[in-house]
Amino acid sequence: MAEAHPADPGHEGHAHGPGHSHAGPGTDRWRIATAFGITAGLFVVQLVGALWTGSLALLLDTAHVLTDAGGLLLALVAAHLSLRPPTARRTWGWRRAEIVAAALQAGVLLAVGLFVLVEGVRRFFDPEPVASAEMVVFGVVGLLGNLVAMVVLFGGRRSNLNLRAAMLEVLNDALGSVAVVVAAVVITLTGWVQADALVALLIGVLIVPRTIRLLTESLSVLMESAPPGLDLADVRGHILELPHVVEVHDLHASRISSDLPVLTAHVVLEDEYFYSGGSAEALGRIQRCVAEHFPVSVQHSTIQLEPADHVEPEVCTPHEH
Length: 321
What we know:
Layout: E1 11-15, H1 29-53, H2 56-81, H3 97-125, H4 132-154, H5 161-190, H6 194-222, H7 232-241, E2 245-257, E3 260-269, H8 271-275, H9 279-292, E4 300-307
Parallel strand pairs: 3-4
Antiparallel strand pairs: 1-4, 2-3
Helix pairs in contact: 1-2, 1-4, 2-3, 2-5, 2-6, 3-6, 4-5, 5-6
């Protein structure tokens, strides 16, 4: 890293941690593709089943399968897009597409989940007939499909975070299918049709909070909020404790995608230290600090170093031009 020249008003440095790469989840794509194919097929089968049987529980489980299929498709697309290098127009590549798609996906599922919760309450007090025998068949088909998808994803769960998350989603689907089968058996044996609405409410209660968390996290990234677990007051305090640091201002942290935190800051150094060529040493200390000392490791940091006598340029308003 070149040192700041005395005539320069500041010095900027970009940190990239050892072995860090812009590339995203580009491995085990065949596992994701296979699981997506199975899940997409299950969605079609269960949608037909929900319309055929009139089961609200099966309908909500179908909406859950659709969301998981969308998540797997996002993982597959991310694995492909991550192979594209950044360009002058898209300097971070397509990393943010993951967040936009996740927010849309969560919004759709939240709307479906709230609708089914309301409809479940109504059906509990005013039940409608359900084809319980067919409901068992479609529930079992869904469960078997989820088990096959879990087997496909199981082998790569340790090497890839996307695969681990996808496997948890498929596990949730499997539990939903079990609940549908249980409701169908109860209706067949006892004739208590409200079991369908009760299971739908149970699945909705499990899904809606997770969906809200996903939507909240996605919007947090889009609003460029600080990464969860990274306390900027703590970051500022650590940087101020470094040798020859006088002040820290314009400190910002956000995320480009769910797994890519970034940080920018203006750090003021003692005049004598700055002009004597100590900028490179200070830059290294600061970048190691933000990469190693906090629960969230920021491998991408942009630090502007300034002497204490540096005067910030005035910002011209449009009417001053």
